[in-house]
Amino acid sequence: MRRLLLIAIGLVLLFGAAVAALGFQAHALDKESQAFVANEVAVISANWDRSLIIAHATPQYRAQLRTERTSVMEEASSELGPPQEYLGATGAVSVWSLAMLGHGASASFTAQERFLNGIATMQFSLVKRDGQWMIDDFDFRALTFDRLGPGMFGRPGVVER
Fold first, then answer.
1. Nearest Cα to 76, choosing from 143, 124, 155?
2. In terms of DSSP H, where are the helices of the chain?
3. Best exposed site among 28, 107, 135, 147 by fewest CB in 10 Å?
4. Do strands 155-156 and 118-129 pair parallel, antiparallel, or not at all (unpaired)?
5. Mind listing the pLDDT tens digit of every residue in the chain (161 residues)?
6. Is 82 in a helix, a strand, or coil?
7. 48 CB neighbour count, 10 Å cutoff
8. What's the CA gap between 25 and 153, in Å, rounded?
C-alpha cells in the first residue's frame, strides 16, 4: 500500500512539473509573439507593401491571399498619412501538446496604430513553425478623421476588406 501511495505521489508531482513547464513555455511564447506582431505592424505601416505580409506568411495563407484583400490596406495608406504611435496589441497564445504528434503554438492578436489622419486595426492569426512565427491570417481596417467626422474616402464608418 505504501509503495502504491509513493507511485501515486510521484505521478502527481511529474504531472505538476509538466503543467508548470507548459505554463512557462506559454508565457515565453506570448512575449515572443507580441514582439513579432509589434515588429510586423511597424514594418507594414512604414511601407504598405503586401509583399511584406507574404514574406512572413504560411504557405497556405500565401496561396489564398487575394490582391483585393491587401489593396484596401494599400489604398488606405494614402488617406491615413504617416504612422504616429503604436497603440499596442491584445491577444493570446494557445499551446498544444500531444504525446504522439509533438507540440505547437498559435496566437491571435489585434493591434492598433495611430496615424496622422486616423487609426488602423490589424488582426493577426499566427502559428509557430520551425522555430519562427508566421502569419496564418491577416485583416486590416482603417478609420480616418476628416472634417465631417470619422470616415474613409468620404463615407462614414469603417473600411473593411
1. 143
2. 2-47, 50-55, 59-64, 67-80
3. 147
4. unpaired
5. 777 777 777 777 666 665 555 555 556 777 888 888 888 888 888 877 778 888 889 998 888 876 656 676 777 777 888 889 999 999 988 877 665 566 778 999 999 999 888 888 999 999 988 888 999 998 888 887 764 354 444 444 444 43
6. coil
7. 15
8. 45
